[in-house]
Structures are given as structure tokens and as C-alpha cells.
Design goal:
Elements: H1 2-12, H2 16-19, H3 22-30, H4 42-55, H5 60-69, H6 80-91, H7 96-105, H8 114-127, H9 132-141, H10 150-165, H11 168-177, H12 186-199, H13 210-220, H14 222-234, H15 239-248, H16 257-270, H17 275-280, H18 289-305, H19 315-320, H20 323-339
């Protein structure tokens, strides 16, 4: 009976479109009969949950994670500070999706003071040259930077990274491409990986691909990257060709070994491209076979089979066309091919 009474009060204050989600949410978060009942305070959860649900558009599943990661939110008796934080983050440029990600990943932000903690860090980051869009992305991907001490943690880390990358411009590019770099230990994690990218992979700082190569090392580790480069060599490419591909398009290291194998096999054995062509156009290794390479190849073969036909593009040029541009230029041929 106590639960039924409590549940009716909760649902009476929540819109119908939200109420349909309540069964699992109620048992997971609101029910005093749940496993966390000993630390549960109905007025606390009601204040925060209703604010995030009704005014911020959070889903019940997101709230479950919020309260699991920050149980102390249940003891807050007013949503005033949370409102100020949400308002500040929106003013700082975060989209609603980014806002949700930020709070779910680090719900303790709702308990920080805007003027004393958040504002100073955001203003400091802006002085480095981040655009509003870049900064919003960085915060949503690595929200724990807002919890770190400005003077004892964030500013010294930024100073070290700036020395590492050489300028604010390079620093902003690096952190925008790989936000996780800001969470890495400079001496133990980042410096050895920078040295690996420069000495082993042969990609120097300042080049357009350096940050992307570094990101692969940071996210995958030395061993996985080395294994993928060996795997590419085992597929018929020389070590020199592998290094040239990685230098030109290090994002290829983010592909699975299965994807590498399938694309290289199709491009060389089915499409008839040379290894040299792959080295010059490594982006082809990242394209989808069924939705991009195969249909574009079929249309190319159809054009080549027509007598006295003049090919408007090379096969590589055909592969590089986006789906929109491909349909615009060759939609009639693709339709004819599919109809047979």
C-alpha cells in the first residue's frame, strides 16, 4: 500500500507521454522497495528527477544511470543549483544531446557551482582559442575536466600539452580530434605515444595526420596498432606501402582486421586496382563494400561496356563520390542495373 500511494503521487505530477516509461523507471529509481531503499529520500529524487524529465527531456533510462553514478543527488532538496548548471551549459553552446551525454557521464556536475567552479574553467578554455562548437564537443566527450581543479590540474595539464604540441592552434586541433588526450598522463602515457608516432610510424608533429595517428595509439595501444600494420603487410602490401598508407590516412588503423582484409581483397582482385593506387588513395579502405564499392563498380563496368562510351570519371573517382553525388551523376545507370 505505501508503494501504491507513493506511485500514484509520482505519476500524477508527470505528463502522460513520460508516464508510459514509468514502470521500469519507478522500480529502478523511485520505488522505496528497491535495493537502494535505505538511502532513498522521496522528496530528493522527486525534485531532481522531475526537473530532468520534464524540463530537460531526459529519458528514464538516462536517469537510472544518473542516480546510480551519483547517489548523493537523492539528498538534494532543491533543483536551483542544477537549474543554474543546465542553463550555463546551454549558454556555453552544448546542444541538448551533448547536454544529456555530459550529465549522464558525469552527473556530479549538477552539484558544482557555476560562478565558483564551472565558469572559470570554461573561460580559461576559451582563451586557448576553442570555438564554442569545439568547446561544447570537448566538454560532452570528457566532462570530468569540469570537476578538476583549475589551478592544480587543468591549467598545468594544458600547459604541458601546449609545450608538447607547440602552439594553441595545434593544441585545439589535437583536443578537438582526440578529447581523450586531456585525460592522459603526460609522462607515463602521452609522451611515449608521441615518440612512437614520430619514430616508428614516421609522422611528425605539425603534419595534418599527426593527431589522428596519435589518437589511434591512445585509444588502441602500441600492440594493437603494430598488429594491424603487420596484418596489412600480410595481405600483400609491403612494409613501405603500409607505412605510406598509415602516414596518409592513419584512421585506417581504426578499422577491424576483417574490414581491412575484405576491402583490400575487393579493391585489388575484383576492382583490379593496383597496390600503388591503394597507397595513393587509402580512404578507399574505409568505404563500405556493399553500399559503396560494389554498386559504384558495377555502374563503372556498365559504362565501360558501352561502345564508344566516354567515361566521365576514373574508377577511383567513381568510388570517391558520395552517395548523393553518385545518384546525381549516374542514377539512371544504377536504376537500369537494379532492374535487370
Amino acid at each position: 500500500m505505501p508503494f501504491l500511494f507513493f506511485s500514484s503521487i509520482r505519476q500524477s505530477n508527470i505528463p502522460v507521454k513520460i508516464r508510459q516509461h514509468l514502470p521500469s523507471f519507478t522500480f529502478a529509481i523511485l520505488s522505496p522497495l528497491s535495493s537502494s531503499s535505505s538511502s532513498f529520500h522521496s522528496s530528493t529524487v522527486n525534485v531532481i528527477s522531475e526537473f530532468l524529465l520534464n524540463e530537460c527531456g531526459f529519458f528514464p533510462s538516462q536517469l537510472t544511470k544518473v542516480f546510480q553514478r551519483r547517489p548523493s543527488l537523492r539528498r538534494i532538496r532543491t533543483d536551483q543549483n542544477a537549474r543554474e548548471v543546465i542553463h550555463f551549459l546551454r549558454d556555453s553552446g552544448l546542444t541538448e544531446i551533448q547536454l544529456h551525454k555530459t550529465i549522464v557521464r558525469n552527473p556530479s556536475i549538477l552539484q558544482l557551482k557555476v560562478n565558483g567552479q564551472l565558469k572559470l574553467k570554461i573561460e580559461f578554455m576559451k582563451t586557448l582559442g576553442f570555438t564554442t562548437k569545439e568547446l561544447a564537443y570537448l566538454v560532452s566527450m570528457l566532462p570530468r575536466i569540469l570537476n578538476s581543479s583549475l589551478e592544480n590540474a587543468l591549467r598545468p595539464k594544458i600547459c604541458h600539452l601546449k609545450n608538447l604540441f607547440g602552439s594553441n592552434v595545434n593544441l585545439c586541433k589535437a583536443l578537438t580530434a582526440a578529447p581523450e588526450l586531456l585525460g592522459s598522463d603526460i609522462e607515463k602515457q602521452l609522451k611515449p605515444k608521441v615518440e612512437y608516432v614520430e619514430s616508428i610510424m614516421g609522422i611528425l608533429q605539425g603534419s595534418t595526420t599527426f593527431v589522428y595517428a596519435l589518437r589511434q595509439i591512445v585509444s588502441q595501444g602500441f600492440e594493437n596498432v603494430a598488429n594491424k600494420m603487420k596484418h596489412m603487410a600480410n595481405l600483400g602490401l609491403s612494409e613501405e606501402e603500409v607505412h605510406q598508407i598509415v602516414n596518409k590516412h592513419p584512421q585506417v588503423l581504426g578499422l577491424s582486421t576483417k574490414k581491412m582484409q575484405e576491402n583490400i581483397h575487393f579493391l585489388i582482385h575484383s576492382a583490379g586496382l593496383t597496390r600503388r593506387t591503394l597507397v595513393l588513395n587509402p580512404l578507399l579502405l574505409s568505404l563500405g563494400i556493399e553500399k559503396r564499392l560494389k554498386p559504384h563498380h558495377e555502374v563503372f563496368k556498365s559504362l565501360c561496356s558501352k561502345p564508344n562510351s566516354k567515361r566521365p570519371l576514373s574508377l577511383v573517382g567513381m568510388f570517391r563520390l558520395t552517395e548523393k553525388n553518385f545518384l546525381k551523376k549516374f542514377g539512371q545507370y544504377n536504376t537500369q542495373r537494379q532492374s535487370h
